[in-house]
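Risk register update: the risk of archive-format incompatibility is retired. Evidence:
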Amino acid sequence: MTKLSVNINKIATLRNARGGDVPSVTQVAKDLEIFGAQGITIHPRPDERHITKKDVYDLKPLVKTEFNIEGNPHRPFIDMVLEVKPEQVTLVPDADNAITSNAGWDCEKNLDFLKSVISEFKNAGIRTSIFLDPNPEMVKFAAETGTDRIELYTEAYATNYLKNKEEAIRSYVETAVEAGKFGLGINAGHDLSLDNLKYFSDNIPNLLEVSIGHALISEALYLGLENTVQVYLKRLAKW
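Archived output:
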């Protein structure tokens, strides 16, 4: 079964809008695990506009499933991850001022850099994943970086799903199949939701994990957090 990792950045955004500790990022992480989430994802950015450095250190001893830290591997980010030692680090090439992640790595252009960074994480026993656009030709370069997994950037799929879902998923299937030839695991994330997740999960081979935040937290406003997690898990079930 594909694991569900919940990105809690939006909880931190809501908290920061008012100050204080309501809603509590740590409490929500613990509750999500109780409700069935199989991982907690955070994406701390340099400006700390949602997840703060303090959150990273506060969450580490509390997360009992899989702790996944996403981010652009600047030196301060690398040093923090090496100190915290999450189960997984996901490398994302987003600009510091980006509202949200908006592109995958050009692994050919950044090959030497990614090799160096990934070797640091792997030497520390941290599983690595790199954000990748749905492009089968980029997979061989991703494999050369030494990464364990790729995370398929799914915004284009989500945008085009209602127009033509077969066409929307085509390049993702091709990329996942190519990744399998190199022994790379598949993660996915960005704009996946209750509406489009099942079709994606049913058609992408070797989909090990999805990381979902904005849609899940938004849907929880209507359905409740526990119920929303359970519905997501049902979407991912293969029976």
